[in-house]
Amino acid sequence: MPQLVNAARSVLFLLAGLLIVLALAALAEANATESSLDRHSGFPGPLPSAAHAAAVQTSVAQTGMFWSVIYAALALVLAVRFGKGGNTLRIGTIFYGAWLCVIGCFALALTADVAPTATVIAAVVELASGALLIVLMVQKEGITWFSTPRH
Fold first, then answer.
1. Distances in whole angstroms, Cα of residue 121 to Cα of each of 65, 78, 136
2. Contact call for residues 100 and 129 (beta carbons, < 8 A)
3. Which range is least confidently modeled, 37-46, 73-82, 87-96, 112-121?
4. Residue 41: how many other CB atoms lie within 10 Å
5. CB within 8 A of 16, min separation 6: which ones?
6. Chain centroid to CA 8: how far?
7. How many of the other CB atoms lie within 10 Å of CB of 105?
8. pTM for this one?
9. Cα(36)–Cα(13) distance, integer angstroms
10. CA geometry: angle at 83 spanning 81 and 87, to 5°?
11. What whole-number distance in Å separates Cα of residue 141 and Cα of residue 74?
12. Whether 93 contacts 137, CB under 8 Å
């Protein structure tokens, strides 16, 4: 397996692990915010808007965790299948990288002001790793590796 292909495989494994860790961190951060507001719910003041913001943050974190687990599972499936090769796997990895770039951009644009810090970090990681996967998969070594028939 060429170095660039092995690097792409490593990126997929690291991305899967990092997405799971960041999803759990976002959920923990959102739950901590919500529980801190629950302690102060008996005091008068501008807490209804803060409680609403905490509920939105928790909802964004839960949705992000759900999708992060799905994207992590897909990254693991792609990484495990690298040994068998095949041009379809290369094209699928390029598509996955492009999809990560798209969702990373949308996540940053739409939820950066209300999302937990870990969710924003996950969006940046998705954007960077998506671009890296695309670059690694379109190199000549990768095209040659995935075009070679294996039995």
1. 13, 23, 22
2. yes
3. 37-46
4. 10
5. 72, 73, 75, 76, 79
6. 15
7. 14
8. 0.80
9. 35
10. 70
11. 23
12. yes
Read off the pLDDT band of 50 (50, 70, 90). Answer: low
Computed over every residue of the chain, the mean pLDDT equals: 83
pLDDT digits (tens, 9 = 90+) for 3-49: 999 999 999 999 999 888 887 887 787 777 777 666 655 555 555 56
User: Do 14 and 79 contact (CB within 8 A), yes or no?
Assistant: no
Q: Dig out the tokens for 44 from the structure.
A: 């008068």
Taking alpha carbons only, the member of 55, 26, 28, 56 closest to residue 120 is: 26
pLDDT (tens digit, 9 = 90+) per residue, 53-68?
Answer: 777 777 777 787 788 8
Separation of alpha carbons 92 and 95, rounded Å: 5
Whose tokens are 């990768």? That residue is 142
31 three-state secondary structure: helix
